[in-house]
Amino acid sequence: MSRKNLVSVIASILLLLVALLSACGDPTTTPVPPTATPLPPTATPVPPTATPLPPTATPVPPTATPLPPTATPLPPTPTRNPADGPTYSEVVKTYPLNTQLCKVEVDVQDDTTQPDKIIVNFKAGTLIGSPFCYGTKITAIGRVTINGKQYEAGSMLTADKNGQIIKVSSWD
User: What is the pLDDT of residue 132?
Assistant: First the structure.
């Protein structure tokens, strides 16, 4: 088939399709004629049953032994031992009126190369003077000696109302 004949055949097919589609009209605007008959239902409805279905679970007889409880009671809330020292917030309440807190968080440990020095690692906050200012939160990450007093790793320290470093029991 030549190229000219192929183009002619394609044009004829397109004209035929256009004619068919224009004869059908727009399906969204063409109304269904009132003489149309509805289709019969394809499924037969099931009539309701008059008798109830039997239960699927077997009831427990009233003489059954009750099961033991599975929950265990919570242990009592531990009370703070005053020997552990005051809490951080208790110390802050003792500061002189209008004391500006530096709110610094540092980790400290002894400098093993220089026995009279300590290593201070700043974690957060704004320094006002010394890292041992009012409100500082000091955590000993290793054994540390401050002002001649030794603290074990994990100790939580802060400055008291006199500016002396003391151990606190928590950061609450």
Answer: 75
Strands ordered across the beta sheet of 105-110: 118-124, 105-110, 137-140, 156-159, 165-168
Q: pTM, whole model, 2 decimals? A: 0.51
Task: Kindly report the average pLDDT of the chain as a whole number.
Answer: 76
5: which 2 tokens? 């004949």
CB atoms within 10 A of CB 131: 19
Other Cβ atoms within 10 Å of 150 Cβ, number: 11
C-beta of residue 158 within 8 angstroms of C-beta of residue 136: yes
Dig out the tokens for 72 from the structure: 């265990």
Distances from the Cα of 129 to the Cα of 29, 34, 93, 109, angstroms: 84, 95, 21, 20
Structure token pair of residue 57: 């679970």
Rounded Cα gap, residues 76 and 20, in angstroms: 87
Task: Provide the token pair at 132.
Answer: 């041992």
By CB atoms closer than 10 A (0-12, 13-18, 19+), residue 36 is exposed
